[in-house]
Structures are given as structure tokens and as C-alpha cells.
Amino acid sequence: MTPHNHAKAGDYAEAVLLPGDPLRAKWIAETFFKNPKLVNSVRNCLGYTGTWKGKPISVQASGMGQPSLSIYVHELINTYGAKTLIRVGTCGGLNAKVKVRDLVLAQGASTDSSIVKGRFGAFNYAPLADFGLLRAAAEKAEAAGMRYHAGNMLSSDIFYHANGMAGYDTLPQHGVIGVEMEAAALYTLAARLDVRALTICTMTDCLITGEEIDAEQRQTSLRDMVTIALDVAIQA
Ligand code: HPA
Fold first, then answer.
1. Residue 236: its pLDDT value, please?
2. Quick one: pLDDT at residue 169?
3. Which residue among the candidates 21, 112, 157, 205 is catalytic per the annotation?
4. Mutation test residue for ligand 1: of 180, 200, 222, 225, the one with most atoms within 8 Å of CB
5. Nearest to 91 by CA among 187, 166, 184, 201
6. pLDDT in tens, 197-230
7. How far apart are CA 14 and CA 214, in angstroms?
8. Which residues is 123 bridged to in the sheet?
9. What pLDDT, on a 0 to 100 scale, did the predictor assign at position 166?
10. Distance from the CA of 136 to the CA of which of 3, 21, 83, 227 falls in 20 to 30 A?
């Protein structure tokens, strides 16, 4: 038990999917898991454990942003023994070659967050995905015939910028392809605590072209992305 999670030791599998939205966690558990069991509902930040293809698997909502994700991930690793953490989310597009519905595998995660920057003094730390998980996700996306891009994500602490796209021009010029709000903290924490982490996003809104996904496409894309994430998560 923790202040944010009333699950008991052993309630989570070693592999955990991390959507931001609690109702997406519920949907993932009820749609994909065999014998899903609710293990956490503190603050309605839902967590479930079940099996996928016969292997134990959990899903825990992370909430939005790096502070919220950091709390759940810290506790999943330190209290519940999680070893493989895969964020499944959506991102904005920062490069016209990334189309809505495309998968973005966050190979690295740049950030404006002091959660990461504050720890490294004069150094600019580069938060990275676990290479084995990244490679497995790329191979599975390829085998499934899905469009995907592996590259540098921006994990921003700010969704509504006072100055519109301020700062978002330099980043795409340096190869950053998408923006979300969690990956950099996930990767930094995973590195510090010696576990594996990956972020997989569906691009839902392109900040360059204004293109947006519709509700039906969103559901299909999420289904495809979650299937890949589950297959990667249970892989040894
Ligand atoms: N910004 C930040 N996070 C996001 C976005 C965005 O435009 N789209 C989906 N997640």
C-alpha cells in the first residue's frame, strides 16, 4: 500500500502498461486481459492485473504529466516490483512526415521539465528507451504493416503555451518528431531504478498541418497500438 495505491504486494505483474487516462486503463483491461482484476482505484487512477496470451500483465493509469506519472512509476517499481513499463498514449505531431494514426516510438525524450533537468547540473541528460523494447516494438509494428517512426519525442510540462508554438520550431529542426507529456520522466526514473521502459504513442493532432484524428480512427489506432505494446511487454 502507498498513499496513491491500495494494491497489495504481488497484485501487479512485472510488466505494466501505462496509459494516462484511467478509463483507458479500464478499457485495456476489459478489452484485452483475461480475468482482469481491479487492483487500484485510489483517486480513480485505475490499475488492473490479468493475463495476456497466458502471461501476467498489468495496466495502471499514470494521470497526465511528468509529476503524476513519476508518482505511479516510482511506486510500481519500488513497492510492487515492476520491471517493464510501457507507456501507451497519444502525441502531437511536430514533423509533416508523421501522419495522424502513425505510431511514434519515443527512442529518446527531450524535455523542458525540471524533473529531469534539475538532477543533472551542467549536463544535458538524454533520457532513452530500453533498446530491446524499442527494437521489439519496431519489429512488431513492421510485421503488422503499421506506419511507425522511432525518434526523439518532446515531453513537455506545458500543454497550453502562452505564446502558441514558442520553442516548438527549434526542436523539429533538430529531429524531434512528436510532443507528449510523460516519456522523459519515465525513462529517467527507469534508468535510475534499473528497469526497462518504452513510450509508444499514436499521433492524434499534427501541430504543423493542423490534421486531427477522428473518434473512430482514434479507437482503431489505440487498439492496434495496445496490441503491439502487450506483445512487447510479455516478451522476456
Ligand atoms: N501536446 C502535448 N501532448 C499531447 C498533444 C500535444 O499537442 N497531443 C497529444 N498529446
1. 66
2. 82
3. 205
4. 180
5. 201
6. 999 999 999 998 999 998 888 888 899 999 999 9
7. 34
8. none
9. 65
10. 21
Residue ranges around ligand 1 (CB below 6 Å): 90-92, 156, 159, 179-181, 204-205, 207
Q: What is the DSSP string of 76-105?
A: HHHTT---EEEEEEEEEE-STTS-TT-EEE
pTM of the model: 0.96
Is 194 an active-site residue?
Answer: no
Cα(63)–Cα(21) distance, integer angstroms: 6
Angle at 101 between CA 98 and CA 102, to 5 degrees: 40
143-164 b/e with 16+ CB inside 10 Å = b? eeebebbbbbbbbbeeeeeeee
